[in-house]
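Format notes (please read before filing issues)

Several people have asked whether sequences and structure tokens are stored in separate files. They are not. Every record keeps both together, in the order shown below: the sequence lines, then the token lines. Line labels are part of the format and must not be stripped during preprocessing.
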Amino acid sequence: MKDLRSTGSSVASMIAPAPDLISIPEAARRLHVHPDTLYRWARCGEFEPALKIGHGRRWVVSVPRLERYLHDRQEPPAPH
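Then the structure lines:
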């Protein structure tokens, strides 16, 4: 295995973000809703494109799932 210290590289720089995942704030911008609204929908299970990662504290949104969500629904669910 290559020693990263000798190359000046880091593991973080070698791992590119998945192009089909976006943040909740980015998804909120695309849906024209406040990010807090999407976080609430995600926690309640009302926003299927959201995925919980890590130890359940971080949310990301699957772009393909978001596109299906937008195709299947003309409007996002009404805020509570």
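For reference, the curators noted about this record: Helices lie at 4-7, 11-14, 24-31, 35-44, 63-72. The chain has one domain: 17-72.
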